[in-house]
Design goal:
Shape: globular
Structural class: mainly alpha
Largest sheet: 2 strands, antiparallel
Strand order of the largest sheet: 1-2
Radius of gyration: 16 Å
Strand content: under 5%
Number of helices: 5
Length: 134
């Protein structure tokens, strides 16, 4: 194992866990002075599976469960594979830009409001949470 292997593993895990948290669980955390926030970018990516399953199978419990468990798993596997590609194959300048855009996407947040909001028609992951667990 090379001396850079722990850094590579940490990099790849961070590129999976940070979007997973930001897109799925961020709206459940109460921040001081901010309240609850939701990530628009990752919430849409993780919520898109529910949207697709809902249009295919109808918006029932099955589509909610598939969108809640299967789709995020597929996104995490894809992010892990892309992070390996990013680590090994891409030039350093492009990698810096992609990493910058990745971290910028983590800050695409807005205040989270339950009930009627301007995002109620978007396929965000919190809609899956409301649908499956209500």
């Amino acid at each position: 194992m090379s001396e850079r292997a722990p850094i590579r593993i940490l990099f790849r895990v961070a590129l999976v866990l940070l979007p997973l948290f930001s897109g799925t669980l961020l709206q459940t955390v109460q921040f001081p002075f901010l309240g609850r926030v939701e990530n628009l970018f990752w919430g849409l990516i993780f919520g898109f599976g529910w949207f697709v399953m809902g249009n295919i199978a109808g918006y029932g419990r099955l589509s909610g469960m598939l969108g809640f468990f299967v789709w995020p798993g597929l996104i995490c596997i894809t992010l892990f594979l892309l992070s390996g590609w990013l680590w090994h194959k891409i030039c350093q300048k492009a990698a810096r830009w992609l990493i910058f855009l990745f971290f910028l996407s983590l800050f695409a947040v807005f205040p989270f409001h339950e009930g009627h909001s301007s995002t109620e028609r978007l396929p965000l992951f919190d809609h899956i949470l409301n649908w499956v667990f209500d």
